[in-house]
Amino acid sequence: MRFDVITIFPTMVEAGLAEGVVGRARGRGLLDVVVHNLRDYTTDRHHVVDDVPFGGGPGMVMKPEPFWAALAQISAEGPPPDAVLLMSPAGRRLDEAGVRRFAGCRHVVVLCGRYEGIDERVRTRWVTDEVSIGDYVLSGGELPALVLIDAVARRVPGVVGDEQSVEEDSFARGVLDYPHYTRPAVWDGMAVPEVLTSGHHQAIRQWRRYEALRRTFERRPDLLETAALDDDERTWLRAWQTQGNIGQ
Ligand code: 9D3
Predict the structure, then answer these.
(1) 218 part of the active site
(2) Is 169 designated active site?
(3) Is there an atom of ligand 1 within 6 Å of 141 CB?
(4) What's the domain count of the chain?
(5) For residue 138, how far is its CA from the centre of ligand 1 (angstroms)?
(6) Residue 77 annotated as catalytic
(7) What is the pLDDT along the chain (248 residues), one digit of tens a residue?
(8) Residue 196 is part of which domain span?
(9) Same domain, 127 and 213
(10) Nearest C-alpha to atom 7 of ligand 1 is from which residue?
């Protein structure tokens, strides 16, 4: 899968792509990410990428021409990209379904805005999807672009070693993760739950499903409206809902 990222902070984006799962996937050729410095697509001596807003008001707007030149060059290199994403607080909030959809693409272009935003004509001519990562204000689209690429890359076959763990992961299953413990068995007077040291694998699986569901019920009951639950899980849930408390 290929990403092209267009930004005025290419080193910020490169830094976020160098380490961990994504860095390794790039090294192994599973993921191709090309980061473009928007200023390289300017034609004036001072590499200006912004200008005052028509109609007045505070702040600056990113000029259309450099984005246009970058997008035209990227498009001319091969078949048209499957998606051109504009990272924007006014976009549709990214979720696992959106991540999965983008992971089905072969080539995605990501535009990162700064200042007040990008000239609207870039969006109307080039952008297929406007994407937000949540309802809080950031300073630009670079961190959101990294979030999106990280989430999408994990769904590219081979990027995460254990294919099963990707499918079982929290939001893929619709339920939060269960609590984790490692050695020592007692730390600062706190013992690991006995079942985990029992060697009783069936009981461990059951405990984990129970604890995962309990956390989801407590913290993210909204997820339970669409989660795929089995008979046991539906029974536990009904008991908690009628009792009005779940102990602990
Ligand atoms: C100060 C300008 N704001 C006036 C209402 C609008 C605004 C424009 C640009 C606010 C933030 C930004 C920069 N943010 C992003 O480019 C961004 C973002 C975000 O801030 N939150 C969640 N997802 C995203 S995706 C891109």
Answers:
(1) no
(2) yes
(3) yes
(4) 2
(5) 5
(6) no
(7) 999 999 999 999 999 999 999 999 999 999 999 999 999 999 999 999 999 999 999 999 999 999 999 999 999 999 999 999 999 999 999 999 999 999 999 999 999 999 999 999 999 999 999 999 999 999 999 999 999 999 999 999 999 988 878 877 756 678 999 999 999 999 999 999 999 999 999 999 999 999 999 999 999 999 999 999 999 999 999 999 999 777 66
(8) 186-243
(9) no
(10) 116
Query: For this structure, is 58 an active site residue?
Result: no
Question: Hey, what are 1's tokens?
Answer: 């899968």
Please tell me the predicted confidence (pLDDT) of residue 246. 75
d(CA 147, ligand 1 centre) in Å: 15
Measure Cα distances from 166 to 15, 28, 114 in Å.
24, 19, 33
Catalytic-role residue among 169, 177, 209, 211: 169
Same domain, 75 and 134: yes
Residues 207 and 148 in one domain: no
> Can you tell me the distance from the alpha carbon of 108 to that of 210, in angstroms, rounded to the nearest whole number?
39
What is the predicted pLDDT for the residue at 150?
98
Distance (angstroms) between ligand 1 centre and the Cα of 41 equals: 23
Instruction: Let me know whether 21 and 138 are in one domain.
Output: yes
Hey, which of 127, 137, 148 would you mutate to test ligand 1's pocket, going by the most ligand atoms within 8 Å of its Cβ? 137
Residue 225, token pair as written in the block = 């409206």
The per-residue DSSP string of 160-218 comes to SS-HHHHHHSHHHHTSPPPP---S-SEETTEEPPGGGGS--HHHHHHHHHHHHHHHHHH
**What is the Cα gyration radius of the chain?**
23
Is 31 a domain residue?
A: yes
145 touches ligand 1 (CB under 6 Å): no
- Supply 28's token pair: 């192994």
Q: Assess whether the C-beta atom of 57 lies below 6 angstroms from ligand 1.
A: no
* CATH assignment of the domain containing 60: 3.40.1280.10
**Ligand 1: distance of its center to the CA of 162 in Å?**
35
